[in-house]
Design a protein that fits this description.
This protein is mainly alpha-helical and 407 residues long. The protein contains 19 helices and no strands. It has one domain: Up-down Bundle (Growth Hormone, Chain: A).
């Protein structure tokens, strides 16, 4: 299988879950009215989707190290299709939330295994560029999906979002089963105890933790904003869902712009410096968001600073992910799963925090976004300049040998 064919398929499998995540977001205020539920309860449609992705990534990574990427990925895509059908047929909010969890649990296979397959095919430096290419291409799906979801909800109804996602999920599943070849033959951990030891090995690595937490808190800043913006537009600014669908194109396009610069800039200044520069730019945009929103809230005050932050995210995320996957390359599946788990768990916590810090939605959103960006920058610095302490051997010859293989 050529690397070009692999990248094309990985774009499709990696984009389906982000599209499913973003498409129903403009409809959250509408769902609150349809089901007669408070906004905090309806927000579980987003929060538990993130939780489903988090849990799923812990499973898919180690299983793919043992059984191969292809069968595990196909299983995940099939689960995504089942969950999407449940959502489309949901007669109550609890049923919709259950469908979203199943949908997320299945769809995250493409996210975690897409990164692992890249690491199978490329070395560390080339994998950063490949991840950036995938990130830039797959950003097109979540860029346009909010607008599509908003207009479908206004013109047809919220169920149309999930009908479209089901059709896309079926197409991606068929394409993957027909075209994707296996990229990993290594037989890794065979039971839960061995899987746990893989995670222990990674968690005891300061370098892996630094890279993983960098990506996690960067993601938390974005998803916190994502959970807040529809309600701020609807309740405080009296804007229709389509306003969110159109304005979100700005930060999505900015992320693509940032990702597009990774290949050239990493070659010119190095991936480490590029990561720190991107994190610093995102933090500066957080200060811009705080000043603008607290002085005068408007759609532009929300989305222009987040567009600047998205440029920084596009520059910092690919090098950070590539760094985390390269700590122990032969268990890249487990590393990718654990990295994704930390991303989604911390992001989900961010979406819960905004409703509990205070009754002021604007202040809560700004506080969580800025704090997450500051922590991300600190973790990035520690990942590059912290102590390179070797973890003590774990009680598994197979995993202990990974220490000797560390590049």
């Amino acid at each position: 299988m050529s690397s070009r064919v692999a990248l094309s398929l990985l774009v499709a499998v990696a984009a389906i879950a982000p599209a499913a995540l973003h498409m129903p977001v403009p409809s959250l205020p509408l769902l609150a009215a349809v089901f007669g539920a408070p906004a905090g309860t309806v927000q579980l449609v987003l929060t538990l989707f993130l939780a489903g992705i988090a849990v799923g990534q812990l499973v898919y990574g180690p299983l793919s190290d043992r059984f191969g990427r292809r069968p595990v990925l196909i299983t995940g895509l099939a689960l995504f299709l089942v969950g999407t059908v449940i959502c489309a047929l949901a007669l109550s909010l609890p049923m919709l939330i259950v469908g979203r969890v199943v949908q997320a649990f299945g769809g995250c296979a493409g996210m975690v295994l897409g990164r692992a397959i890249v690491r199978d095919l490329f070395d560390r430096e080339r994998s950063a560029n490949a991840i950036a290419t995938i990130a830039m291409a797959m950003s097109l799906a979540p860029s346009i999906s909010p607008a599509i979801g908003a207009y479908l909800a206004e013109w047809v109804g919220w169920r149309a979002d999930f009908v479209l996602l089901a059709a896309l999920g079926a197409a991606v599943l068929i394409l993957t089963a027909a075209r994707l070849e296996e990229t990993h033959r290594y037989t890794g951990p065979t039971n839960l105890a061995e899987m746990a030891r893989s995670f222990v090995l990674l968690l005891r690595s300061p370098a892996f933790l630094g890279f993983a937490l960098t990506t996690a808190f960067t993601s938390a800043s974005w998803f916190t904003f994502l959970a807040s913006a529809p309600y701020l537009l609807s309740e405080m600014l009296r804007e229709p869902p389509s306003t969110y669908g159109l304005m979100i194109l700005m930060p999505m396009a900015a992320y693509i712009l940032g990702s597009a610069g990774v290949s050239r800039l990493s070659a010119a200044i190095g991936s480490a410096r590029l990561m720190i520069f991107g994190l610093a730019l995102s933090l500066a945009s957080g200060a811009m968001l705080a000043i603008w929103c607290l002085v005068r809230l408007s759609p532009w005050a929300l989305f222009v600073p987040m567009a600047v932050s998205s440029v920084g995210n596009g520059l910092s995320q690919p090098p950070a992910i590539a760094g985390g996957l390269s700590v122990y390359p032969r268990i890249a599946g487990a590393a990718s799963g654990l990295l994704g788990f930390l991303q989604m768990v911390i992001a989900a916590l961010g979406t819960l925090l905004i409703g509990r810090l205070s009754q002021d939605r604007v202040l809560s959103m700004v506080a969580v976004v800025v704090a997450a960006l500051a922590i991300a920058l600190l973790c990035g610095i520690l990942a590059l300049h912290g102590p390179e302490t070797e973890p003590r051997p774990v009680r598994s010859p197979r995993l202990s040998s990974e220490i000797a293989r560390r590049p």
